[in-house]
Amino acid sequence: MTTETRTFCRICQGMCGLVATIEDGRVVKVRGDKDNPLTRGFACSKGLASPEFHYGPKRLLRHQRRRSDGTHEPICFDDAIDLVADRLRPIVARHGPRAVAAYVGTQATCNVIYRPLAIDFLRVLGSPSLFTSMTIDQSAKWVTIGRMGSWLAGRQPLKGADVWLLSGVNPMVSMSGWSGNLPAYDPVKQIKEARRAGLKLIVIDPVRTQTAENADLFLQPLPGHDAAIFAALLNIILREGWHDAPFCAAHVAGLDDLARAVAAFDPALVEARAGIRSGQLLHAATMFARDGRRGCAGGGTGPNMADHSNLAEHLIETLNVVCGRVLRAGEPAPRRPVLNPDRPVRAEVRPARREWETGHRGLTGYGTMFGQMMTATLADEILSDAPGAIRALFCVGANPANALPDQRHAVAALGALDLLVTSDVVWSETARLADVVFAVKQPFERPDHTQFLETLGLELPFAQYTPALVEPPADADVVDDWLVYYALAQRLGVTLDLAGPLDMQVTPTSDALLDRLAGGSTVPLSVVKEHPSGAVFDRPAPLVQPARDGRRDRLTIAPPDVIDEVHRCRADIAAPRTVGGRPATHLLVARRERETMNSFGRDLAGTRKRFPRNPAWIGPADAGSLGVAGGDLVRVIAEHDAIIAEVRIDAAVRPGVVSMSHGWGNLPDATDPLVDGASTSRLVARDRAVQAINAMPRLSAIPIRLERAD
Ligand code: SF4
After folding, report:
1. What percentage of the chain carries pLDDT values higher than 70?
2. How confident is the model at residue 613 (pLDDT cuts 50, 70, 90)?
3. If you measure from the C-alpha of residue 193 to the centroid of ligand 1, how many angstroms do you get, rounded to a whole number?
4. CATH number at residue 614
5. Ligand 1 atom nearest residue 175's Cα
6. How far is the C-alpha of 190 from the C-alpha of 489, rounded, in Å?
């Protein structure tokens, strides 16, 4: 029997509406759902390949335990839970709860039950050792909130904006609007519609990306100069008086200090060092601050992963702040919750908290942000000899053996644990190292709703519920991912909390937990369920409320550590980039491909057809001077490791730059670059260009030498 069911994709935060064709209990095809009012029929190649991923040969169908020789054997769920609980108790008794850690990755993001329940498991154990992909991704955004504070009403939305500036972010491929301060859904259509309505788009990127193709002004600098570029833009704007002086006078602290510090960034000097055309910085500043009245700047992985990343992100947000690009009292608030409770939105400042100075501190000396430890320190927190070092790690929708910086070091750390547990749908690199692997349901086998999407800046009162579409394959022994932590909590005699304490005697259903999460929703979940394609609910936009009486907090744009970083960035602007004492020939930047998201999607047939491996993309001039053609192999040599990659030539990549996607490769000593691709994380050094506060290493703009691999 063939049926069609409406659902939504849960691979990335786009949560695109899908129509799934189901034959004999299997999802055989999906297409974009034109009736979904948010994504209107769009679905990318990853979403459309969901059935292949769902039933692919790497699907994990049984829980596994590791034998002493490193191979795995099947184990039933109850025995696996007993095994983990039995090994966890002595670790906690001997080393304390902080020796138990969790690493939560991006594949737990679009899963409203799993992520909070796994994190709560750590809480009830009493462990502060929570790591997530956020602190190894765009954690500079959290550093900025921690140092500057934030405007509770939020930034001006894309709708109605006349200018937008994107730096090192390619939403037309990543499909994520979040990092560019864009709406959370369908950024391609939204940018195009905004441009048709008159928006001017400025894009700064070392690669002429698909987003750059839509720009009114495109700056193509050498990577790693984002902080200097934004310092120069601020210098022009403050010098010319194009900032919003009344807003700054009322809500900003440190304007004069910042103006003095960025005065050292002469635009002509920055243009020369960054390799951008003369006059482009003045042009960008004019478009954004003098001629543009409404609209924001946003930075992505480029500025957030390259040199001076914390400063770069701070200055991007400072640009928004000094230009007053925030919502004011009386304006319509863009966020209208549906599955979340309604809360007043206020035109006031939440002050800087600098949690890392006062909260829990890890053995590596780094503090926390939003209750999370810094993921770049995870391997060292495991390998430390000090009491309290991490001895057990739970991986939640994550593949740290592939994702953590300096892959050899990370894999050595994972191998040194007393207990490594992961839950996955496929045999990942981490699963192959794990003591216990829980085989869990694929997205189409579990219900879900879009409550999480609302927290990402959704500008429409949209919500959708999806039922489980199919049962797992008949020969599978897989469980709901959240059940792993519920069952472990039962064995350990602790009570989990999900919107209130859970009944630990009677195991709930996923639907009961979804109901529970939506208990305070503005629109009842039962009403949301009446709309299989999701719906935009008729909820008037509330107005931004004035600040509460007595609230006089300010956005601190120039605290001493930021000013210190501005000076260091200025001193660094002419520093040579070297590899092993020799001048770097190129800078390696992170690349987005539509077909993959981190390590997800690399094994799909469509991906492999287009990219049998992750190429090193270089411009034609660099290919000529190196004497290589597309398909040739090159050695990509960084300071402490090297990888082999296949060359592809792309005129969009500027000279001096190599662009590669991450998430490929295999375990370090098992990688065949012609089969697995190359792991760029092996090139990330843990001991240079590391940011204070978040331990963020340089993941992009990495100095490399490129050689033919004859
Ligand atoms: S952009 Fe692609 S992967 Fe992301 S939710 Fe949409 S279809 Fe899924």
Report:
1. 99
2. confident
3. 20
4. 2.40.40.20
5. 1
6. 44
With CA atoms as reference, report the closest residue to 702 among 171, 172, 309, 410: 309
User: Quick check: ipTM above 0.95?
Assistant: yes
701: burial class by Cβ within 10 Å (0-12, 13-18, 19+)?
Answer: buried
**Given the CA of residue 39, which atom of ligand 1 is nearest to it?**
6
Judge contact between 220 and 183, C-beta under 8 A.
no
Percent over 90 (pLDDT), the chain: 78
Q: Does residue 119 sit within a domain? A: no
Token pair recorded at residue 429: 């690199």
Span 321-329, average pLDDT: 97
Helix residue ranges, H only, 573-617: 605-610
Residues 358-382 as b/e (b if ≥16 CB within 10 A, e otherwise) read ebbebbbebbbbeebbbbbbbbbbb
Residue 448, Cα to own-chain centre: how many angstroms? Answer: 21
Query: What stretches of 483-641 adopt beta strand conformation (E)?
Result: 535-536, 555-556, 578-579, 582-583, 586-590, 616-618, 633-637
Is residue 230 domain-resident?
Answer: yes
Number of structural domains the chain divides into = 2
Q: Could you read off the pLDDT of 532-542 as tens digits, one per residue?
A: 999 999 888 88
Ligand 1 atom 8 nearest Cα: 47
Asked if the model's pLDDT at residue 150 lies above 80, the reply is: yes
Whether residue 218 is contained in a domain is answered as: yes
Domain finish residue from 561, 588, 616: 561
User: What burial class does residue 73 get, using C-beta atoms within 10 Å of its C-beta: 0-12 exposed, 13-18 middle, 19+ buried?
Assistant: exposed
Ligand 1 lined by 16 (C-beta under 6 Å): yes
Last residue of a domain, one of 499, 526, 561: 561
Ligand 1 atom 6 nearest Cα? 16
Indicate if ligand 1 lies below 6 Å from the C-beta of 397. Answer: no
- Name beta bridge partners: 103: 131, 395
- d(Cα 555, Cα 258) in Å, to the nearest integer? 12
Q: Could you tell me the two tokens for 102? A: 């969790």
CB 175 less than 6 A from any atom of ligand 1: yes
**16 alpha carbon – ligand 1 mean position (Å):** 5
CB of 658 closer than 6 angstroms to any ligand 1 atom: no
Mutation test residue for ligand 1: of 8, 29, 46, the one with most atoms within 8 Å of CB: 46
Ligand 1 site, residue 184, Cβ cutoff 6 A:
no
| Residue with tokens 């199919």, as numbered in its chain | 470
Q: Is the pLDDT of residue 667 over 90?
A: no
Q: Containing domain of residue 613, as a range?
A: 576-708
CA distance 515 to 510: 9
Closest CA to 493 of 62, 76, 75, 92: 92
Q: Does the pLDDT of residue 321 top 90, yes or no? A: yes
Q: Is the CB of 302 under 6 A from ligand 1?
A: no
pLDDT category, 284, cuts 50, 70, 90?
very high
Q: CATH number for the domain including 283?
A: 3.40.228.10
461, 536 in Cβ contact below 8 A?
yes
Domain membership flag for residue 516: no
b/e sequence 473-504, b meaning 16+ C-beta within 10 Å: beebebbbbbbbbbbbbbebeeebebeeebee
Which residue from 42, 44, 452, 599 has its CB within 8 A of the most atoms of ligand 1, so it is best to mutate?
44
DSSP-assigned beta bridge partners for residue 437: 64, 422
Q: Is 46 in the pocket of ligand 1 (CB under 6 A)?
A: yes
Enter the tokens of residue 610.
Answer: 């287009």
Nearest atom in ligand 1 to 44's CA: 2
